[in-house]
Structures are given as C-alpha cells and as structure tokens.
From TrEMBL:
Residues 131-200 form the Protein-glutamine gamma-glutamyltransferase-like C-terminal domain. This is DUF4129 domain-containing protein. It comes from Microbacterium luteolum (Aureobacterium luteolum). InterPro entries: TgpA-like_C. The chain crosses the membrane at residues 63-84. It comes from the Bacteria. It holds the Pfam family DUF4129. Keywords: Membrane, Transmembrane, Transmembrane helix.
Amino acid sequence: MIRPFDDLFVPDGDEARRWAEEELSDPRYADAKPTWFDLVARDIGRFIADLFTSDNGANVGPWALIIVSAVIVAALITALIIWGRPRSSRAVRRARADLLGEQDDRSAAQLRADAERSARGGDWDTATVLRYRAIARGLLERDLIDPAPGATAQSIAREASAVFADEAAAMRRAAVSFDDVRYLRHPATEESYRDLAATDERLRTRRLEAVPA
C-alpha cells in the first residue's frame, strides 16, 4: 500500500528560505507594492477619518476640523501641481522626439534660426521645411495643439486653425508649401518662404486673448 505523502519533499530551513527569496524576486511582486504616494494617501485618509470620529471631533471642535481639512486639501493640491509638472515635461520631450516624420528635438527658436540661416544661403527648400517645423514646435511648446503621433503637416494646420481661426488660410498655404518640398520635391521659392515665415512670426507673437471671436 502506497501512502500519499511518501514522495513529499520537505525542504530544510535554508532551502525553504531560498525558495521564498526566489519567489519574491519575481517582478510581479514589485509591481504590486504600493508606491510612496499610495502610502501617504492612505495615512492621510486614516488621519482624517480619525479626526472625524465622534470622540476626536468632540475634543477638537468643528472649526479646528475644518481648518485641518482645508490645510490637508491645500497640501494635496500643491503636491499635484508640483509633481504633475515632470509628467508634463516628459510628455513634451516625447512629443519632441518625432516631429513631422523626423527625429528632431530642436526648439522652435533653434529651428527658426536654422531656417533663416538656410534662407540667407538661398536654400529655400531647407528653409521652408525648417520654418514649418518651427511653427509646429512653437505651437507645441505653448500647448496650443496636441497632435497625434505621426501627425502630418495638414493635421497640424487644422489644429492650429482651430486655435487661430483667422490664420486658417495661411496655415493651409504653409502646410502645402511644406508638403510640396518635403514629399513632392517641388522647389520652394523666396516668395513662398517669406509667406511661410510671415505666418510663423504672426503666430509666434499672438496671444489667445487677441484672437478674434
């Protein structure tokens, strides 16, 4: 007769500890751990709950509870504002990684300066491409548009037109100039570049409150 536990292996203390360490080293356990923010939020929640219990509420009085609650809410809002900024900055950096189908992390000012440098050399094609990128980058830096990954010149022009309605025709021309040079290999001219640069200058100095209703 075979007993069911004859083949059962019972590890000694060292072996059992090693197995436990290997199991707990699995990444899924690390992912399941609460973050520091979770722990702080939990402690704050418990503190507020304790304050509003009948015993504590009677001891400290209603006005003290209101003041303490207001201070805690203000602290949470401040924390969200402070720690929300890096996430926004990372989003901007991700947006900068790809701009109109090309990896380019130059700022709008840098793109604008490089475009003008190409224009002074008579390279209107390069100047046109860089100047339109400067328009797109400037709108991104000001959080006026939020293009999807791989956005085209035309889609950026439509987003910009939704913000600056009176510049819709100029933005369409600018997008066409970019596409003509970048994809259709049509040579740019000084006139088309100057029109594009003028659009960029107007948008660069425009404030939202100055946009006609």
